[in-house]
């Protein structure tokens, strides 16, 4: 029983073999997949995927790299979808200072609006943070994100930043990069994250774990992340999978 807490199986990279990819995940013990909708195009297809498969759930949100395109009507649309029975979180939302596609002030406004929405509807948030650790933490604090909590998706920051996020009711999720041989900091942080706040993910089709690095990622590969995490935590794979699946159920309100 493994939960992939962050995937994009509605992405065009899976158009040729999506059903086979999903069947492979099931065959490898993946019991639940949280699929992420993050803009005008991906939100409908993510929800449609969740409606098609009972073990797939969806998030709805607006990615920071697309922040400049979000209108007030889009925010209202996202709010209207929050009552859907398969929608379990708002995300992925946050700040991205690596890709220069949306101005920082626009990213900040869109980020804050969605945290406020999450508090209004009572859903957790999925955080995208790239090269913006200080500003993400500060915004989460200022907008009282601890009231709903959430997950720091594909965490790449320091232990000091992780501690601040843990203090604000967030889970810390690790993906394929933690399996890389040169991934010193992610491994050190994973070792320190309490087991009851740990999650695993793929971010498929991106960030495939070793030995598939550089190739298309898929949900079945989350087992490789689980194996690395279990080794770092010095517990059995079965125990690691059970704990992280229970954590995902608690965060996303799944039985």
Descriptive report:
There is one protein chain. The chain is α/β, with parallel strands linked by helices and 255 residues long. The chain starts with a strand and ends with a helix. It has one domain: Metal-dependent hydrolases (TIM Barrel, Alpha-Beta Barrel), CATH 3.20.20. The protein has helices spanning 18-27, 42-52, 72-81, 104-121, 133-142, 159-167, 184-192, 222-233, 237-252; strands spanning 2-7, 30-37, 56-60, 87-96, 125-130, 150-152, 170-174, 198-200. The model has no long low-confidence stretch (mean pLDDT 98). Strands 1-2-3-4-5-6-7-8 form an 8-stranded parallel β-sheet. It has 9 helices and 8 strands. It is 41% helix and 18% strand. Keywords: Hydrolase, Metal-binding. A divalent metal cation 1 binds at residues 6, 8, 92, 203. One of its GO terms (molecular function) is metal ion binding.
Tally of contiguous helical segments: 9
Quickly give the CATH architecture.
Alpha-Beta Barrel
In this structure, how is the largest beta sheet organized?
A: 8 strands, parallel
CATH superfamily: Metal-dependent hydrolases
**SS elements, strand count:** 8
Report the C-alpha radius of gyration, rounded.
Answer: 17 Å
Strand order of the largest sheet: 1-2-3-4-5-6-7-8
Binding site for a divalent metal cation 2: 128, 153
Keywords: Hydrolase, Metal-binding
InterPro entries: DNase_TatD-rel_CS, Metal_Hydrolase, TatD-like, TatD/YcfH-like
Protein name: Hydrolase TatD
Entry summary:
By secondary structure, the protein is of the alpha/beta class. 41% of the residues lie in helices and 18% in strands. This is Hydrolase TatD.
């Amino acid at each position: 029983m493994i939960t992939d807490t962050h995937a994009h199986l509605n992405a065009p990279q899976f158009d040729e073999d999506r059903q086979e990819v999903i069947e492979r995940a099931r065959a490898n013990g993946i019991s639940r997949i949280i699929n992420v909708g993050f803009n005008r195009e991906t939100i409908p297809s993510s929800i449609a995927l969740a409606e098609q498969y009972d073990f797939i759930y969806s998030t709805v949100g607006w990615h920071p790299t697309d922040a400049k395109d979000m209108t007030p009507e889009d925010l209202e649309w996202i709010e209207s979808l929050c009552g859907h029975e398969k929608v379990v979180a708002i995300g992925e939302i946050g700040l991205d200072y690596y890709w220069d596609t949306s101005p920082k002030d626009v990213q900040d406004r869109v980020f804050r609006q969605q945290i406020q929405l999450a508090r209004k509807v009572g859903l957790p948030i999925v955080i995208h943070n790239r090269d913006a650790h200080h500003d993400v933490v500060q915004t989460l604090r200022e907008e009282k994100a601890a009231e709903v909590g959430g997950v720091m998706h594909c965490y790449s920051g320091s232990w000091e930043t992780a501690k601040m996020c843990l203090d604000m009711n967030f889970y810390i999720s690790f993906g394929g990069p933690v399996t890389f041989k040169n991934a010193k900091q992610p491994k050190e942080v994973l070792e320190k994250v309490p087991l009851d706040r740990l999650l695993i993910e793929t971010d498929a089709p991106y960030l495939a774990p070793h030995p598939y690095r550089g190739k298309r990622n898929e949900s079945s590969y989350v087992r490789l992340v689980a194996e690395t995490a279990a080794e770092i935590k010095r517990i059995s794979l079965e125990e690691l999978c059970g704990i992280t699946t229970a954590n995902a159920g608690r965060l996303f309100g799944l039985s």
